[in-house]
Amino acid sequence: MTLSWRASCRGCGGAPEDFLSLGEQPLANRLRKAGESVDVARYSLTLCRCTSCDLVQLREVVDPAMMFADYLYVPSTSSTMVAHFDALAGEAVTRLGLGSDSLVIDVGSNDGLLLSRFRERGVRVSGIEPAENLAARANASGIPTTCAFLDVSVARELASQGKASLVCATNVFAHVDDIRGFMRAAFELLDDHGVFLVEVQSWADTVATLAFDMTYHEHLTYYATSPLARVCREEGLVLLDVDRVTTHGGSLRAWIGRPGHRLNRPERVAERVALESPFVGPSASARFAKGAHGVRDQLRALLAAIRNDGGRVAAYGAPAKATVLLNFCDLGPTDVAYVVDRNEAKQGHWIPGAEIPIVGPSRLAADPPTHLLLLAWNLADEIMAEQASLRRAGGAFILPVPVPRIV
Ligand SMILES: [Zn+2]
Which of 227, 234, 219 is closest to 269 using CA atoms? Predict the structure, then answer.
């Protein structure tokens, strides 16, 4: 199976309605390698919203084995993400009172970055990671990691070696098709007072910043607090508390537990639901769809104007959202000469569909552009500080969303 179509809501079983098609898109993280055909596989990308619980989700489901077997996203290459995970580990240790007899399990543990921050604080750790290259890297650095997708049978086997006080799923819960099965599996791993900590991209922030490029085949579900609380209730669980954090353009940090848990703060959950309400629901979805088409028109016009003035545009960052933005806006190597990324595993590849080469940062000095389009716009401050010499040489940066603009 490479593609299936979702007829009912992943959260409540209700009926979703389509509101935005981003067209036929390549798999966003499947960068084209040298020697591979430029005619990459494309799959339609359609956003819909459940008319019962407002959960936003994708219609089409690409087989996860096609997306995650050899995964190139490694947050350890971003100093912003390293600091974020360090702060998360510190907060979780304090709030849950974790110590040397506690076990923390990270699902989608990547190269072990978050778990290394718990281990530094004297807590026992264990990872679950489906990408073989990343699981191997984590094991080599001393973070015990099982190479698997989490499901109830994997969870029962791991739980037989001892239950966890905390199960984390950061930037992974949105990737899951069977979200309720995943939640059940996480609670198989947890002891009676255990907490399931989820960090997901916040749909309210995605709408507020018009970050339509954050929607791609890997992200099947787009959470706001109210639909997330509903999913928990459907499973007999409680959304205990929720914070907004700044990663990935705005994310929710959700603390989920069994009823009666001491961390339950319903007033904070209600406050977050109220703050998000202008960005959740049918009119917000319609506004979002209209805005995405506006960004496409304006960015194309801006790049054409720069080219007509004799300028030359390069881009910074080859995250998944770069593939989505470039393909949705129908941009290619004539519009953007090359894309710089610090992750050496991505260099020497091409953005699929757009056919723009990915190169190392040294290219910027050797072949300087007049404008640098920040495709990794969530890390704009970090990138603009690192590339301050571009501005000193008379160049400028371009932010693509919510309104394409030169900064
Ligand atoms: Zn629903």
Answer: 227
pLDDT in tens, 381-400: 999 999 999 999 999 999 99
378 part of a folded domain: no
Q: How many angstroms is it from 233 CA to the middle of ligand 1?
A: 12
DSSP, residue by residue, 222-268: EB-HHHHHHHHHHTT-EEEEEEEE-GGGSEEEEEEE-TT-TT--HHH
90 burial type by CB count under 10 A (0-12 exposed, 13-18 middle, 19+ buried): middle
Q: How far apart are CA 222 and CA 200, in angstroms?
A: 8
Rounded Cα distance, 268 and 243, in Å: 8
**Parent domain of 231:** 75-283
| pLDDT of 1 | 44
pLDDT at 378: 86
What distance in angstroms lies between residue 358's CA and the mean position of ligand 1's atoms? 39
Separation of 8 CA from ligand 1 center, angstroms?
A: 8
* pTM of this structure: 0.89
Ligand 1 midpoint to CA 231 (Å): 8
Q: Is residue 172, in this structure, part of any structural domain at all?
A: yes
Number of domains present in the structure of the chain: 1
Strand, coil or helix: what is 405? Answer: strand
SS3 at position 34: coil
203 alpha carbon – ligand 1 mean position (Å):
15
Task: Give residue 234 CA to ligand 1 midpoint distance, Å.
Answer: 11
Task: Quote the CA–CA distance of 373 and 406 in Å, as a whole number.
Answer: 9
Written in H, E and C, the secondary structure of 43-109 is: EEEEEEEECCCCCEEECEEECHHHHHCCCCCCHHHCHHHHHHHHHHHHHHHHHHCCCCCCEEEEECC
pLDDT at 70: 58
231, two tokens: 């999913």
Determine the distance separating the centroid of ligand 1 and the alpha carbon of 56, expressed in angstroms.
Answer: 8
Spell out, as residue ranges, where the chain has pLDDT lower than 70.
1-2, 67-77
Assign residue 220 the CATH number of its domain: 3.40.50.150
- Determine the residue type at 55: L
CA of 282 to the centre of ligand 1 (A): 13
CA separation for the pair 353, 332 (Å, rounded): 8
Among the listed residues 55, 92, 27, 61, the one whose alpha carbon sits nearest the alpha carbon of residue 200? 55
Task: Evaluate whether residue 350 is within a structural domain.
Answer: no
Q: What is the CA(287)–ligand 1 centre distance, in A?
A: 20
Task: Let me know: does 324 contact 347? Beta carbons within 8 Å.
Answer: no
